[in-house]
Amino acid sequence: MFHKKPAIGIDVADTMACVKEAALASINNRFHTDIKMHHLSSFNIEEHPISQRSGITAEHVRDVLKELWRENSAISLIDPAIPEIIRRLRRDYHVSITTANDAKSRQLEEWLGANNICYDMLVHVGSTGAKVGPETAHVDVFIDDSEVVAEMAMLAGKHALLIEKPWNMRFASIYGEESKMGRIIPVKGWKDVSKILEDASFIEELSKVLR
Fold it and tell me: What is the pLDDT of residue 151?
C-alpha cells in the first residue's frame, strides 16, 4: 500500500497562492488595463474581453507568470492560516502538493518552504488534465480551484473540495446541493477545508477504503 493514511492533493495557484491577483497587478500595470479578480468568468486571463481588446495573449500571461515565479516574493498566501491548517491535517492525512503550475519545481519548493508549507510529496504535472491520473492515484481528496480537476476526481471515484472562485461559481452552484453527500464539495475557503477534512466522520469514511 502506498500510504496508511488517506491522502489529500492540494493545488498551489489560486488554491494556496494568490497567483492570479499578482498576475493581474502586473498585467494591469504593463498594459494600462483595470482587470479585477471578480471580472474573471474564465480561468484564463487572456479570454477576458478587456484582455482581448488590449491585445493581451496567452503568451503574455505565461511570460508574466514565469516572471512572478522567478521573483516569487510577490505571491502571497491566500489565507495566512494555511500553514497551520496543513500542519494539523498531516496528523491524519498524507499531504501531496498536486500542481500543473507554470513555475519550475525548484521555484515551487522555494515558495512552499518560504511560506512554511509542510508536505509529504510534490507532484508537478504538465497540464491541468494530468492532475488526476497515474501520478496522483494515491490521492483520495483533491483541493483545487479548477472545475476540470473536480469533475475528473468525481469520475475517478475521488472527492474534490472546490475552492470557489469567480471562474468556477457556475459549476460550484450546480454541485452545491449534491455536495452534502456527493464527491464534489464547493467550499468558500480554507476555514471550510479545515472543517470538512478534520471532521472525524469524514476521516473515518476515507479510512474504511484503505482497510
Answer: 92
Burial 37-58 (b: 16+ CB within 10 A, else e): eeebeebebbebebbeebebee
Instruction: Give yes or no for a contact between 125 and 99, defined as CB atoms under 8 angstroms apart.
Output: yes
Could you tell me if 198 and 88 are in contact, meaning their C-beta atoms sit under 8 angstroms apart? yes
Grid cell locating 159: 472527492
DSSP 110-162: HHHHHTT---SEEEE-SSGGGSSSGGGTT-SEEEES-HHHHHHHHHTT-EEEE
How many helices (H) and strands (E) would you count in the chain? Answer: 9, 6
Cα 64 off chain centre by: 19
pTM for this one? Answer: 0.91
Question: Residue 66 is placed in which grid cell?
Answer: 514565469
Q: What whole-number distance in Å separates Cα of residue 83 and Cα of residue 99?
A: 17
